[in-house]
Amino acid sequence: MSQFKDIVIDTQSADLQATVKTTFAENSRFLCYTRMEKDSFNISSTNGIDLWRAELSKEDIEGHSPDGNVSNVLIKIREAFKQKNLVLAELGRKMKLTLGRDTQSIDINLFEVTAAIRKTELQAVIFRMADCISGLEASAEKDQQTISKLRQQQGTSKDSGVSGMVDFGNDNKRGKGLQKPISKQPGMSIVNPGCRKRKIAKGVEFD
């Protein structure tokens, strides 16, 4: 693996894509994307029928930086794709792709490819999009399974919490049903079972 390819992979600049609305074609959108092929960093644009491409070497990338820093240029390209700061203009039989805005923008000239290359590139784009969709579906399914497990765990916790509660109401009812009637003992008060009845006071008896 070449050093240039390592830099492209490290900066996550390969396999970028974004759609662009054009001003030169009515109701027309283009797909712009990047792809690393051998020692060439390719930026392409297609409307689904025709295709334009720029094959950039390490030296070409260095030419877009005052200090020749390849990583900085690739990061700018990556951010332009992610933020969809792309402008596509038609210049005869070629396209000019502007990435970014203001003085930090990068202009790349894209040239129309041959029929054979166009066929190969469009096939690669189709399968690449299919892989992206499959990856998103797999990720969504995994997230759904995680959510379902969390919901089941929450439901189990609630059930165990309810079953572990003491039903004091039923215990009280059962306790009331088991109470024995208080039997009256001789000389004891019915109102206060633990106390003896007071005898009625009598006056002094004289013989």
Architecture overview:
The longest helix is centred in the C-terminal third of the chain and has 49 residues, at about 115-165. Strand 1 (about 15-20) and strand 2 form a beta hairpin. It contains five helices and seven strands; from the N terminus they run H-E-E-E-E-H-H-E-E-E-H-H. It is an alpha+beta fold. A seven-stranded antiparallel sheet has the order 1-2-3-4-7-6-5. It is about 40% helix and about 20% strand. The mean pLDDT is about 80.
Considering the chains and any ligands shown, give keywords for the structure:
22% strand; single chain; 207 residues; molecular adaptor activity; 7-stranded antiparallel beta sheet; Dna Repair Protein Xrcc4, Chain: A, domain 1; alpha+beta
Task: Give a short summary of the structure.
By secondary structure, this protein is α+β, with helices and mostly antiparallel strands.
